[in-house]
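Collaborator request, handled under Task 6.
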Amino acid sequence: SQPTCPQQGSITGRGASCLLTNPPGPHPPRCPSPPVLFPPPTRSHAIACVNQFIMDRAQALMENIDTFIEHLFALAVDEDPEVRKNVCRALVMLLEVRIDRLIPHMHSIIQYMLQRTQDSDENVALEACEFWLTLAEQPICKEVLTSHLVQLIPILVNGMKYSEIDIILLKGDVEEDEAIPDSEQDIKPRFHKSRTVTLQHEEERPQDPEDAEDEDDDDTLSDWNLRTAPRGWEGCPQTPPRLAPSPLDSQSCMQGMVPYLPELIPHLIQCLADKKALVRSIACWTLSRYAHWVVSQPPDMYLKPLMTELLKRILDSNKRVQEAACSAFATLEEEACTELVPYLSFILDTLVFAFGKYQHKNLLILYDAIGTLADSVGHHLNQPEYIQKLMPPLIQKWNELKDEDKDLFPLLECLSSVATALQSGFLPYCEPVYQRCVTLVQKTLAQAMMYNQHPDQYEAPDKDFMIVALDLLSGLAEGLGCHVEQLVARSNIMTLLFQCMQDTMPEVRQSSFALLGDLTKACFVHVKPCIAEFMPILGTNLNPEFISVCNNATWAIGEICMQMGAEMQPYVQMVLNNLVEIINRPNTPKTLLENTAITIGRLGFVCPQEVAPMLQQFIRPWCTSLRNIRDNEEKDSAFRGICVMIGVNPGGVVQ
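Structure tokens returned to the collaborator:
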């Protein structure tokens, strides 16, 4: 004794038993009438069971898809929230798999989902939010949704409000907490990224290709909740939900934002001074997203006011705001680069003051902001006034930390950038830093040896200590140049490097080859006696399975070529075939192609008779790899090498 279908097509009210007046399928409009109304859990589980077969397009379901959809519509306004939730889930999956069966009823489905997004049961509302995310991925999104946006946007914005529980979990009710020490579980484990040698391109700012991932601002509320759900939809119909948008999608969204930025940016800068810490912290994060645009405008318009306010927020009395401001400032540093030089004194005063203010967690982020500043302004940091401000607090922290303290990682990374930037300005601090790095490498190698011999008696060492130390030694060699020679002469670093280059861990080898290249440039006199031992190891590491290891080994070989000259001849055949194979390999990352091309060119420059016969096998990918590289010494030597080889084997380039 089911109620007859309300043919007016209403989907409101508790009595409505049907979602649509015209269910899909070839039949005339009718309303399905289940003979028995099962109890709610049975109805809910029945939908959930069938839902399992949607994404796999199970044949049995596809043959009965219209009947299934009809029965879904009949249960659309069921009194049981679990039933409504599973109806929403089914419609979301059908949107991905059989949108063709939903299109004729899309207007009514959207109206229904607008109601479910405001459902009194949050789980139902959350499931309904998925509908908008999924619809945003469909090509028909703009066409079917535009007329409903006036209803949808207020509903989504309303759902984004923090609940009182959210605010408590986010410590949003706490405004000043800078004096409260961090608990250890507040601090995420840090992992050091080994040094990778890259070349700069025309019109490009230096950037680590692996640094593209973004951290969400609400790390406490990591669950997919109703407030975060709408935020996954970026407002661009083509942006996939909760995935990093592709660069093209981001770009098109960004272009749409540009006309509003002259008003938006000053408003967001004002939000940096809001009385609520949560607003100040999210304003930092949001502004960092527009750093590239800010830097492209005249500095007095937006860069200067943004920088001034961000520096104030770095010294905020709320730890969450300090963290967001430090991260945002690091992003701004990467974009602005030397635009920051006129403000260096002011910036350093702020960052150094933060040393005395920050608790444990934010101190680690502060190291990153200082290292990024050094990377961004480079040698401009090498002024006595700046060195006097920056180095004492860094060296104080350096002296406080024990060799086994993992806080050394971010501090060593920071010092590596600072040493590279300060160049000779780092000389007064270099000896104790150098010695400690050598000690860290030596200790780790000794622990590894004991563990390999007696794994039951000793713990495996944390090789990150050795990797970070090798990278700081690279920074010292790059920054100090020939001044590092005396330090190398008084240490056993070449012996240790020989062991590190053969380590089983790829990241250790990666950092070893970077250091070998930097020492080759800075003090080849100490590297040359080891070349006969080093070259076979470099040759065996020209394996593109380990891209970064292969990249750094390739780069080091190129640097060795330039120092060895014609004496490189005995080693050419050890490496040439592998290099030619890599440059012709499909899907090889750009950085590896570029370094391979440079090294082939340099090999040909010093040993043209040995390399020129293979010219035809690499000349085309060689040219395409290097045409966009910025002019520098490496490019210069590589192109000279190609010219010399063409003289030896002109037939190799005729095609």
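The cover message to the collaborator said: "The chain has a mean pLDDT of 86. The chain is about 60% helix and 0% strand. Please let us know whether this matches your experimental observations."
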